[in-house]
Amino acid sequence: MSAFTGLTRSELRGLRWKDYDAEAKRITVSQKIVGTILGRPETGACRGSVPIIDQLATILAEYRKEFPGNEEDFIFQVERMQAGRDKMFALNLDKLSR
Which of 7, 25, 68, 75 could pair covalently with 15 via S-S, beta carbons 3.0-4.6 A apart? Predict the structure, then answer.
């Protein structure tokens, strides 16, 4: 996802569903997670929103159906990543890059 948005791994880890505007196909970066510390992002992305391509919007919609949650939930939750359940998202992204 980083390749398609320019966001760092720590910024991606800090994304909550409320930061994703599916209708506008944009992500707003307001925080990052480094290790276990939540903080403000250092890149220019924090000054506004980042557009996402249609294919990535489709993948995020599928991902949200698979792992529903509320607006405050992190998009990429550590528990899912550790259990290997974020592989579906990674596999779909891999298809995008081909």
Answer: 75
Domain positions in the chain are 2-96
On the CB side of 46, CA atoms within 13 Å amount to 12
Higher-pLDDT residue of 5 and 89 is: 5
HSE-up of residue 37 (Cα within 13 Å, Cβ side): 4
Residues 7, 25: contact at Cβ < 8 Å?
A: no
Is the model's pLDDT at 80 over the cut of 90?
no
Residue given tokens 């298809």 in the structure block: 95
| pTM of the entire predicted model | 0.72
